[in-house]
């Protein structure tokens, strides 16, 4: 479908054609490294936030000299891009301490980046009222840094306008996801992920308009192909449509996910009537499926995941976690236990950020799908 090709193209490059056009128009771009960083505030400053990714990067040898290989390959890949000068189009980066790997990356980016703006956004690690307050305090610091670095003022109305734009994105993505309840769904998991990633690296109003135009085309699309196993993918640092395609080519359909480069980025709208827009943004972030780095977040996350599993008719779950990611290594044990109680099989895949296919993974996925078919 021609309309889908645009999203695939935008998702295939970090510094894509829309980013280049935005820069040529004299506008700024700031990179973020985690879905817990409140993009709405950066957008309220008239700056385009983009989630840092390293499509098709295979070698991190320069970064490995600064960040030990025990750090996850997502963090080393981001640093590698910086050291190769491939982030030169950015006007700044917002770093954070989601996990120790991110914290080490923050230190290296602070030391190595030659940009007008590097801001460290300190993350809460336990849900509760204190987390909401902490998030608001950190947003006020980020707001102050942006205003100072770029000699501007960010008003509450600017923040409300950004909230409106982001809510529109999340509602449109919600509509798109509803179509994936169909069996078979009218779009593949691969196509869906290209849309997801394009939405993280193109101007939001433009993305919203294109997505709104795409929805009726997807809705009327005849879903081809035999019924295949319906899967959910969870995990961290998983942002490669090629990896999703690798799974789907084996006779599966990824119909939903619990990824920070996916559902967690687009779920939940912000209360547009809250007198304090920063407080409203904080509640949206702390009430969604939590990252495993949040020590008491699993019950809330599993509540959201199991609702998706029921409503999207999921037959099996793949946990695609990065090597050395201690948080997902722990979370998959909790997840396996809960899924076992709910009678749902889990396939645990450990991978490197750049690994989108491998013989060993191929065999394990094939065996998992055959087991699901035998159970169907
Ligand atoms: S994938 Fe895991 S280790 Fe890597 S940045 Fe995310 S939470 Fe940290």
UniProtKB/TrEMBL annotation:
Cited Pfam families: HGD-D
InterPro entries (alphabetical): FldB/FldC_alpha/beta
Domain of life per record: Bacteria
PANTHER family documented for this protein: 2-HYDROXYGLUTARYL-COA DEHYDRATASE, D-COMPONENT-RELATED (PTHR30548), DEHYDRATASE SUBUNIT MJ0007-RELATED (PTHR30548:SF1)
Family in the record: Belongs to the FldB/FldC dehydratase alpha/beta subunit family.
Name of the molecule in the record: 2-hydroxyacyl-CoA dehydratase
């Amino acid at each position: 479908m021609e309309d889908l090709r645009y999203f695939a193209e935008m998702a295939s490059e970090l510094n894509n054609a829309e980013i280049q056009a935005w820069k040529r128009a004299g506008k700024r771009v700031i990179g973020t490294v985690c879905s817990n960083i409140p993009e709405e505030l950066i957008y309220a400053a008239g700056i385009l936030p983009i989630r840092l990714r390293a499509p098709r990067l295979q070698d991190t040898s320069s970064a490995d000299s600064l960040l030990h290989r025990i750090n996850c390959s997502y963090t080393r890949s981001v640093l590698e891009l910086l050291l190769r000068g491939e982030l030169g189009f950015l006007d700044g980066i917002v770093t954070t301490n989601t996990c120790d790997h991110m914290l080490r990356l923050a230190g290296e980016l602070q030391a190595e980046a030659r940009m007008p703006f590097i801001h460290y956004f300190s993350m809460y690690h336990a849900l509760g009222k204190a987390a909401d307050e902490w998030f608001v305090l950190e947003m006020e610091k980020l707001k102050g840094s942006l205003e100072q670095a770029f000699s501007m003022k960010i008003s509450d109305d600017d923040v409300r306008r950004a909230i409106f734009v982001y809510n529109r994105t999340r509602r449109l993505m919600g509509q798109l996801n509803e179509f994936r309840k169909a069996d078979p769904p009218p779009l593949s998991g691969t196509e869906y992920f290209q849309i997801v990633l394009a939405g993280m690296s193109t101007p939001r109003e433009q993305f919203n308009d294109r997505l709104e135009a795409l929805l009726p085309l997807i809705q009327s699309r005849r879903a081809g192909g035999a019924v295949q196993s319906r899967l959910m993918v969870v995990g961290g640092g998983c942002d490669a449509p090629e990896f999703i395609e690798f799974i789907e080519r084996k006779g599966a359909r990824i119909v939903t996910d619990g990824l920070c480069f996916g559902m967690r980025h687009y779920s939940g709208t912000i209360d547009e009537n809250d007198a304090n827009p920063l407080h409203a943004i904080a509640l949206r972030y702390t009430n969604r499926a939590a990252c495993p780095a949040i020590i008491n977040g699993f019950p809330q996350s599993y509540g959201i995941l199991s609702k998706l599993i029921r409503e999207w008719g999921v037959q099996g779950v793949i946990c695609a976690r990065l090597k050395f990611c201690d948080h997902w290594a722990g979370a998959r044990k909790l997840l396996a236990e809960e899924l076992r109680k709910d009678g749902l099989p889990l396939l645990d895949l450990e991978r490197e950020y750049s690994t989108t296919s491998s013989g060993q993974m191929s065999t394990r996925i094939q065996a998992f799908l055959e087991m699901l078919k035998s159970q169907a």
